Amino acid sequence: MTDKHHDPVISIQGLKKSFKDHEVLKGIDLEVYKGENLVVLGKSGSGKSVLIKCLVGLEYPDEGEIKVFDQDISQLRYDELNALRVRVGFLFQNAALYDSMTVRENLVFPLRRHKKSMTREKKEAVITEMLENVGLEDSIDQMPSRLSGGQAKRIGLARTLILRPEIMLYDEPTTGLDTATSHEISELMVRMKKKYNISSITITHDMSCAKLTADRIVILKEGIVVAEGSYEELKRSEDEWVRSFFY
Fold it and tell me: Which of the residues 90, 99, 167, 234 has the least number of beta carbons within 10 Å of its own beta carbon?
């Protein structure tokens, strides 16, 4: 699945991050390749969300290097970082829709900001395509308050994908959803990855999401990567602590 001959789309080396005297990330090395979904597992407080925030420039590392599309993000000017962010979509666990806007208005919002030259017809076509992707074309004129949790998550994903990011960062994409809906979201992530050749990092506690979506899994413990492999490999790990995630 992974083609090691290509340069990684994300490369993290020696990443360290502390808050006051609490060291959260203690030297993370990670690579993500084109079209690959890397799942990051770890107990609460292992630094998973901080890792994602460093990737999009919401937090700055104390040490180490983060390269996205071969650009060192710590060296980028404000406008360059913004241009990069359009190529990277992120779906946070509380990625709320704008309540005062219909589904259509929620989807047109990122286009208005980032695709100013796009014609109105093209915008409508892209909105329709994205709603079809998530199976909610009938909800185009709904207000978000009328949507279920799973529908809102799917619309959030459609809104993120509308700018056609090359990399997706998912932070707990199935949290708060029932088992059937979680399964739907995981399958949708896999379908969108294949359709648009998206590379992604997914942080999750949901092992069925990890099993369905992961090409490769890394496990963080106390701020470092302690294991890496496929779902099946890690499930059979000799390390009892690593195995504990799978049972």
Answer: 99
pLDDT at 45: 77
Q: Using CA atoms, how far apart are residues 154 and 136, in angstroms rounded to an integer?
A: 8
**Per-residue pLDDT at 10:** 97
The pLDDT of residue 46 = 79
CB atoms within 10 A of CB 53: 17
Q: Which residues contact 171 (CB under 8 A, 6 or more apart)?
A: 48, 49, 52, 90, 91, 92, 93, 203
Ordered by where they begin, the domains of the chain are 10-97+166-246 (3.40.50.300)
pLDDT of residue 95: 64
SS3 220: strand
Residue type, 212: L
Listing from the earlier edge strand, what are the strands of the sheet with 88-91? Answer: 88-91, 167-171, 199-203, 37-41, 216-221, 224-229
Residue 209's nearest CA partner among 182, 228, 242 is 182
Alpha carbon distance 186, 164 (integer Å): 19
Distances (CA, A) of 218 to 49, 208, 229: 14, 15, 7
* Cβ-based burial of 222 (10 A; exposed 0-12, middle 13-18, buried ≥19): middle
Q: What does the block give as tokens for 230? A: 């496929």
pLDDT profile of the chain (247 residues), mean per 10? 70 96 94 96 86 88 95 91 89 81 95 92 96 96 94 94 95 92 96 96 94 97 94 96 92
Phi-psi sector, 218: left (phi>0), alpha (psi -120 to 50), beta: beta
Residues in a beta bridge with 66: 12
